[in-house]
Design goal:
This protein is α+β, with helices and mostly antiparallel strands. Helices cover 21% and strands 40% of the residues.
Length: 145
C-alpha cells in the first residue's frame, strides 16, 4: 500500500523550501482504528507527509534527478492532533546537505515539528521521472511553476 500525503504544493523555492497541504479526509483507512470512535491522523503519518514534501523539494530542485528518502529523525515533537476535515499546512526547509526541518500546522497552530536527515537517491531508480514531473505540475496547479 502506498500513501500519497501531499495534496497540493503552494510554494516552492528551489533548493531552499517548499510548502503544501494535506487534506485529512474521514475516508482515509488509517483513521479507522486510530483511535476507535475518536479518529485522528497518526502522528507518524504527519511526519511521513513532511518527509514526502521534502522529497518533492529535492526532486524539483534537482530537475527530477534525485529524491530524498528518510534516514534518521533527529527531533520530532507532537503538539496536538489532526482530525478528519482538517487541512494540514506542511512546511519544509533544507538546512544543510540532506538535512531538513519541517512543521505541520492546522489553522496556523503547530501540530508537529521535526528535524530529519535524508539519503539522496537517483529518482529514476524508484519512479518514472517524466511521470513524476507531470505529477509535480499537477500538485503545483495554483502557482504554476
Amino acid at each position: 500500500m502506498r500513501y500519497l500525503l501531499v495534496d497540493q504544493i503552494t510554494e516552492f523555492k528551489e533548493g531552499e523550501s517548499i510548502r503544501g497541504i494535506k487534506n485529512v479526509a474521514m475516508t482515509e483507512d488509517f483513521l479507522e482504528f486510530h483511535f476507535p470512535r475518536n479518529p485522528v491522523m497518526p502522528g507518524v503519518m504527519v511526519l511521513e507527509a513532511l518527509v514526502q514534501i521534502g522529497g518533492w523539494l529535492e526532486a524539483a530542485s534537482s530537475d527530477f534527478r534525485n529524491w530524498m528518502v528518510i534516514r534518521k529523525v533527529t527531533r520530532c515533537n507532537y503538539y496536538g492532533f489532526a482530525f478528519p476535515g482538517d487541512q494540514l499546512e506542511l512546511e519544509v526547509q533544507r538546512t544543510g546537505e540532506a538535512l531538513y526541518r519541517g512543521t505541520a500546522l492546522v489553522k496556523g497552530k503547530r501540530k508537529v515539528k521535526a528535524e530529519f536527515e535524508g539519503e539522496i537517491i537517483p529518482l529514476e531508480e524508484i519512479e518514472d521521472v517524466e511521470e513524476q514531473r507531470r505529477f509535480f505540475r499537477l500538485l503545483m496547479r495554483d502557482i504554476g511553476l
